[in-house]
Automatic annotation (TrEMBL):
Lipid bilayer topology: Multi-pass membrane protein
Cellular localisation: Membrane
GO biological process: proteolysis
Name of the protein this chain belongs to: Rhomboid family intramembrane serine protease
Species of provenance: Zooshikella ganghwensis
UniProt key word Transmembrane helix: yes
GO cellular component: membrane
Keywords annotated in UniProt: Hydrolase, Membrane, Protease, Transmembrane, Transmembrane helix
TM region positions: 12-32, 52-79, 86-106, 112-131, 138-156, 162-182
Domain called Peptidase S54 rhomboid: residue spans: 50-183
Amino acid sequence: MLNSKVTNISCWKSVIGLLGFMWLIHLVNLLLGYQLNQFGLVPRSINHFTAIFYWSFLHGSFDHLLTNSIPFTILGLLVAVRGSNCFFLTTLFISIASGIVVWLFGRTAIHIGASVLIYGYFGFLVSRAWFDRSPISLIIALIVVITYSGLIFGLFPNTQQVSWEGHLAGLLSGGLMAWLLYKQTPTKKQL
């Protein structure tokens, strides 16, 4: 069920606060000459396993962060409409679950960036509409699919600088989170 107060300030604060945190991390990273990126997620490296908790908050440049900021905000707000707890649990789940998948199966490279969350939110919103079948969820999913249909191209290997594995893992993790939350929602009798 969607949060009854779509304009709930805490939903907006959650998303904008996390975005601000990403920008703060980026400024520190910039001042350090992007040295924090060496702590990104490197598949099958025991030394980089803990990166599953923060890899999605590191970015390689201002362009990288800026490119991720707008869809992160829009899709994040659509997830947060279900409540701040839903937003934070979904964000945490997507980052960790997709991090584990990339750590196990990704190509050897340093994987960083909030695009994993963007793909995860996309997967969450579309999957949640599938499970809920409520008019508002279906409308949101339709708008998301129309607006962000170009994300499909990021699911295939096309350049060494893009973690298509992270995108795919994020999408699947978001869908899995939607299913897990749906299974925990008490069913209502239809009249």
